[in-house]
Design brief:
The protein contains 45 helices and 16 strands. By secondary structure, it is an alpha/beta fold. The strands form four sheets. The chain has a seven-stranded mixed beta sheet with strand order 2-3-1-4-7-9-8, sandwiched between helices. Strands 11-12-13-10-14 form a five-stranded parallel beta sheet, with helices on both faces. Bound molecules: adenosine-5'-diphosphate and magnesium ion.
């Protein structure tokens, strides 16, 4: 059967805009749809509002009907001002029918497909495509739009668009989960989502009714996580800052909860600062939904976090899943029921199919036994099983998985026997958690002994694993590596392990309830099994991290870093085990050291620095090994960049001594470059320069081109700093040659940046611009965000030298944002200075002087020296402001700046960017000149003012689009133009600008 679903795009909004017009349009639309469907031999089986559902026996007839409706709608003279555009979806498959209505997975999919289309578009699934491709009517084609993820989070669907004369074309990206406008990190699910209509509606009502903290509570396996994910997917509509999932199951320690959430929200941490503070700052003004999944084992920490977020972040909503509620104020507890179960003796297949538990069982049954359907022979047993299992989804899945070897009747008989034993023949039902436990016990008992061993050992993984990891961890004893694949496949077939194919490779995981069970079993085994599994797990990730490290500064660097990121839960677990395990110092150091390059490009600096601190700070002798030296160098490099520490030189010296003792030139060169760079940043150029030749010589002797490129690159920077640009250029050219030869793109980018900097110093602005723009292009092309930021910062300074304050500010404010997000503290200070310099060129001189004071203070507090370029620019900036203000006024303003906190300094710098200078925080100063009114809003067009008014009234982009009857794209274009005119960069600044320039906020109608 082929289904045709249709709806009018934006129907609700059209009704609001023009009731009478819409009533007329709706009637005409109704006539068009019904006439065309009937003309093609189909049947409209449901109509709600302007949404129609029709069924066709012949798929080509369905297709023709869709085309005919589009053509008729296109030709219809709709009431003026009512853009009626019909969106359609075609999907084929078997559906269950009851009382003339259809339901089941095929119906659900069709509805989901309709969700992602645009008005005027006709979409079809691969299932329909396969049926009609050979029989397309003349002129009609099907364009392949590729795989799309639908909002049921199920498997991606290959989607086609019907094309032909009279059909519109040129639609934007589909509104699928792959649409970049939908910001989220929701994972795909291997199976279709079943039922839960009422629960989803209730959750939606709760959140839209203002409950900002909803806890989905219930026993394990009842479907909390799945429900939360689905509610989250439904909430994704492209407005606000998206929907983010933080998976807490792998989080072993309560302290790590905040970190896991920060990572999910892509908030970088600032070492030395509580992660919670950084997190709250980062999301304080964001509008997002955060899902904290599987909170039961860290309830206290989650409660604290939730409390802080609810209080400080007014537009963040939390959806928590947990066996127990958090028990804090403002929490709304939603208890998930089981899926609806039929009476145990209902044996009518058609009626059974209406129950959610039966749908889920049948869906899984069909996965394990091809062609399974609930018919007269199976109905009685299915009803009994679903009732017996109380509608617990996980229990139903485990039972259905046995269909590979047993019939439904046999499964039912065995379950009956088990439960009779458990209830000692007493027919009262077991509590839900015992029902599930009984099912898992049953599934476990049916495993062969090697399957049981593998199953248990897999519980040491955190956040999923790959096949090679399973082989490394699960082999041993009676299980050889070559057997692991088969055993794993057997566990997947029994639904004890979940498998998912991502980008061609399979990733496995255990549902949390099941992992917990397996871990319990493993811990119960006598002897060393648990420790052996953990050691094997750790060693596997030591190996992975070191392999990835060896690929850094090479063409495949990013692929490896992505792999490390995907395994970070496991790596974190391996690190934690190393720290806790008496024999774990060396493997722990190897992991931490191996993460060096990864951390610079992907973050997690705080965790790695902390782990290094714990491992290096262990009491007792530390053998002077290569691993220790590498860890010390890593620690130096990370601390130098992220945190600073007075211990850096002594750690570097220790590493150098070890390297010399081992006669390891490469290692010595590595340690020396770390020390030299630190000296350079501390302003000790002579020391850095003095040792730079030695580092180059050692790297040359070691014959490691990567090391040589680093040593030469550093020396070039130092040489340029002394003013010897020719010598610097020679070193850089050699670096470029080496880096290009070995495919080290990141070094090519770094070198282009440095060459750009030298050109700036030489006053060659066009050449500098060329190098730096090249660097940004290449960095973006290879996904080196960190380097792109560095290049942009340097380009910002280049613009400053060229007296182009506006361009400099545009770049520097962006850099400041990225640097804060990634905790590049030194760059935060650099950009503050840059923004002070920009203010000195075109803003109020007193504010500029204040910003200089603030910037200087940040450098001093961090013990960060100004680079030569910064020193010169700063001196001339100060001189110019002294000239403009007079000494006394400059000193007063500058001194005021020195009292500002970093946050205050940033706010002030940003408000110069927004053209809305705020009065200084702190003491009102009689000498302080009036910062003056914000620039008049007169330069904005009437439309732009309208948009600003709505934005100030709290409307999202989508809401603005809806209210003004324009597309979101148009709104975005307007906002870009407004940003250009006002300098405001984000919603907060735009709102502030609107207020200050007298635009009255307009609250959009709901
Ligand atoms: N409504 C549903 N539709 C399809 N599968 C479901 C549904 N609810 C739960 N499941 C499946 O049941 C299993 C257990 O659900 P899960 O959400 O992990 O439970 P919990 O979080 O309560 O422990 C998972 O495999 C999940 O995909
Ligand atoms: Mg869960």
């Amino acid at each position: 059967m082929t289904l045709l679903f249709t709806d009018i795009e934006g129907g609700v909004r059209l009704w609001e805009a023009d009731r009478d017009g819409m009533a007329a349009a709706s009637a005409r639309h109704d006539r068009i749809v019904r006439e065309q469907v009937e003309a093609s031999g189909g049947r409209v089986f449901k109509a709600v509002g302007e949404a129609y559902r029709a069924s066709f026996a012949d798929p080509v007839a369905a297709l023709c009907s869709a085309v005919a409706i589009q053509r008729a709608a296109g030709a219809e003279p709709w009431p003026s001002g009512l853009p009626i555009r019909v969106c359609m979806a075609l999907h084929s498959g078997a559906c269950a029918e009851r009382d003339g209505d259809y339901f089941g997975p095929v119906v659900n999919r069709a509805a989901r497909l309709l969700d992602i289309g645009h008005g005027g578009q006709v979409l079809a699934t691969a299932a329909t495509y396969a049926l009609v491709a050979d029989r397309l009517p003349g002129g009609i084609g099907l364009a392949d739009l590729g795989e799309q993820r639908l909002k049921d989070l199920g498997r991606a669907e290959r989607v086609f668009q019907v094309t032909g004369p009279g059909l519109a074309a040129g639609f934007g990206v589909l509104r699928s989960l792959d649409d970049p406008a939908l910001r989220h990190n929701l994972p795909s699910q291997a199976t279709a989502f079943v039922g839960r209509t009422a629960e989803l509606a209730e959750l939606r009502a709760l959140t839209s009714g203002g409950s900002r903290l909803v806890t989905i509570a219930g026993p394990g396996g009842i479907g909390k996580s799945r429900l939360a994910l689905q509610a989250a997917a439904n909430a994704l509509d492209g407005t606000g800052d998206g929907v983010w999932l933080a998976e807490l199951a792998p989080v072993a320690e309560p302290e790590l909860v905040t970190r896991a959430v920060a990572a999910a929200l892509r908030v970088g941490e600032t070492p030395g600062r509580p992660v919670l503070d950084t997190l709250i700052d980062a999301v304080a003004d964001r509008d997002l939904l955060l899902i904290l999944d599987n909170a039961e084992h860290v309830l206290g920490a989650v409660a604290e976090l939730a409390d802080a977020v609810i209080r400080s972040c007014p537009r963040v909503c939390l959806l928590v899943t947990s066996r127990e509620p958090l028990g804090i104020g403002g929490e709304h507890v939603f208890r998930v029921p089981g899926l609806a179960v039929p009476p145990a003796d209902l044996a009518v297949p058609d009626r059974l199919a209406a129950f959610e538990s039966v749908q889920l069982f049948a869906e899984h049954a069909a996965l394990h036994r091809r062609g399974f359907i609930v018919d007269d022979t199976s109905a009685a047993a299915v009803a009994a099983i679903c009732a017996r299992l109380d509608g617990i989804p996980l229990a139903l899945e485990l039972a259905a998985a046995r269909l590979g070897s047993l019939s439904v009747a046999e499964i039912n008989a065995r379950l009956d026997h088990r439960f009779r034993l458990l209830t000692t023949g007493n027919r009262t039902a077991l509590p839900r958690h015992q029902t599930l436990r009984a099912l898992i016990d049953w599934s476990y008992d049916l495993l062969s002994p090697p399957e049981q061993v593998v199953f248990e050992r897999l519980s040491v993984f955190a956040g999923g694993w790959t096949l090679d990891a399973a082989e490394a961890v699960a082999r041993g004893g009676d299980v050889a590596d070559w057997q692991v694949l088969d055993l794993l496949a057997a566990l997947v077939a029994k639904s004890l392990v979940q498998a998912e194919v991502l980008g061609g490779s399979t990733r496995y995981r255990l549902l949390e309830t099941i992992r917990h069970y397996a871990a319990e079993r493993l811990a119960l085994r006598a002897g060393q099994d648990l420790r052996d599994a953990r050691v094997a797990h750790r060693d596997h990730y030591v190996c992975l991290v070191e392999t990835a490290a060896a690929q850094s500064r090479g063409p495949d660097e990013h692929r490896w870093f992505d792999r490390i990121e995907a395994e970070f839960d496991n790596i974190r677990a391996a690190l934690a085990f190393s720290i806790a395990d008496p024999g774990g110092a060396e493997p722990g150091l190897r992991i931490a050291a191996g993460l060096r390059a990864f951390v610079f490009s992907h973050g997690h600096s705080g965790e790695v620095i902390e782990a290094l601190g714990a491992l290096l700070g262990r009491p007792g002798a530390r053998p002077p090994t290569r691993y220790l030296a590498l860890a010390l160098v890593t620690n130096c490099k990370l601390l130098t960049h992220f945190n600073r520490s007075p211990d850096i030189p002594s750690m570097a010296e220790e590493a150098i001594t070890i390297a010399r003792g081992l006669a390891d030139d490469d290692l010595a060169a590595d340690a020396l470059t770390a020390l030299n760079w630190f000296s350079f940043l501390q302003g000790d150029l002579p020391a850095a320069l003095a040792r730079a030749d030695e580092a180059v010589a050692l790297a040359t002797a070691a014959g490691n081109p990567k090391r040589l490129a680093v040593a030469l690159g550093h020396r070039a920077v130092f040489r340029a700093e002394t003013g010897d640009l020719d010598a610097s250029l020679a070193d850089y050219q050699e670096v470029l040659r080496i880096a290009r030869a070995i495919g080290d793109n990141s070094t090519v980018v770094v070198t282009l940046i440095n060459l750009g900097v030298d050109q700036v110093t030489a006053g060659e602005f066009p050449a500098a611009l060329a190098y730096l723009q090249d660097a940004i292009r290449l960095a973006d092309a290879h996904g080196y965000r960190h380097l792109s930021t560095a290049a942009q910062m340097n380009l910002g300074f280049a613009y400053l030298l060229n007296s182009d304050a506006a361009s400099a500010r545009r770049l520097l404010t962006g850099v400041l944002d990225s640097a804060r997000a990634a905790s590049e503290v030194t760059w935060v200070h650099n950009t503050l200075l840059g923004l002070a310099l920009a203010a000195g060129l075109d803003a109020d001189p007193s504010v500029a002087a204040t910003l200089h004071g603030a910037a200087d203070r940040q450098f001093e507090q961090a013990g960060q020296a100004f680079e030569a370029r910064e020193l010169t620019m700063r001196a001339s900036g100060h001189a110019r402001l002294r000239g403009a203000l007079g000494e006394a006024a400059f000193d007063a303003a500058y001194a005021r700046g020195r009292t500002l906190s970093q946050a205050e300094a940033i706010a002030l710098a940003m408000s110069t960017a927004a053209g809305t200078v705020q009065p200084d925080p702190g003491q009102p100063d009689p000498g302080q000149p009036d910062p003056g009114p914000a620039p008049a809003a007169g330069s904005l067009s009437a439309r732009e003012r309208e948009i600003m008014a709505l934005l100030a009234g709290g409307a999202s982009n989508a809401k603005i689009a809806e209210t003004l009857y324009v597309t979101s794209n148009t709104v975005r274009t307007h906002l870009d133009r407004i940003r250009d005119k006002t300098g405001a960069r984000n919603r907060a600044e735009l709102t502030r600008y609107a207020m200050q320039s007298g635009i009255e906020p307009v609250v959009p109608s709901p």
